[in-house]
Design brief:
alpha+beta, about 30% strand, Sulfite Oxidase, Chain A, domain 2, single chain
Length: about 160
């Protein structure tokens, strides 16, 4: 065998053994937390938390109708998540929660407003029992028109999937 081929074969075998050892010790492949389908590059796109965290992160503090005091929400902009998935020609974003609750968000909101897919509240991961792990949230306190039922209804917690239509 050629020396380069042998080195590559040994390197590949080493990686495979390391993966097997990690699996044997209980480690697993990253688990997708968000599926994006519809008008995307190669449907469906599955993103794990690490992929979302690699995107530029935004934070804002806002009041919501669901909390007694303002909290700081952090995560990537919805438009950046859609770009990562290769969304094209979006008119409507259909968002689905873990309990199969669904809402429609105009794609224009993602383009014009700093809507985020929050994965942190006050610097901590959002547990499922507290509306996590992902929460589509608008910066309600940034403009008076955002403090309305129209935008409150477009926020969705426990987000699991998005369909671009």
């Amino acid at each position: 065998m050629a020396p380069q081929f042998t080195r590559r074969l040994l390197a590949g075998a080493t990686v495979a053994l390391a993966c097997c050892a990690a699996l044997a010790q209980g480690a697993s492949a990253p688990r997708p937390v968000l599926e994006i389908s519809g008008k995307v590059a190669a449907p469906p796109v599955q993103l794990d938390m690490a992929a979302l965290q690699r995107l530029p992160q935004q934070s804002f503090k806002t009041n919501t109708p669901w909390t007694r005091e303002p909290h700081t929400y952090s995560g990537p902009l919805l438009r950046d998540v859609l770009a990562l998935a290769g969304a094209k020609g979006a008119v409507t974003i259909k968002a689905v929660a873990l309990n199969d609750y669904q809402i429609s968000i105009p794609a224009e909101d993602a383009a014009k407003l700093d809507v985020i897919v929050a994965h942190q509240i006050d610097g901590k991961a959002i547990p499922v029992r507290e509306r996590g792990p992902l929460f589509v949230i608008y910066p309600f306190d940034s403009a008076p028109e955002l403090r309305s039922t129209r935008y409150y209804e477009r926020s969705i917690w426990q987000l699991k999937s998005i369909r671009i239509e």
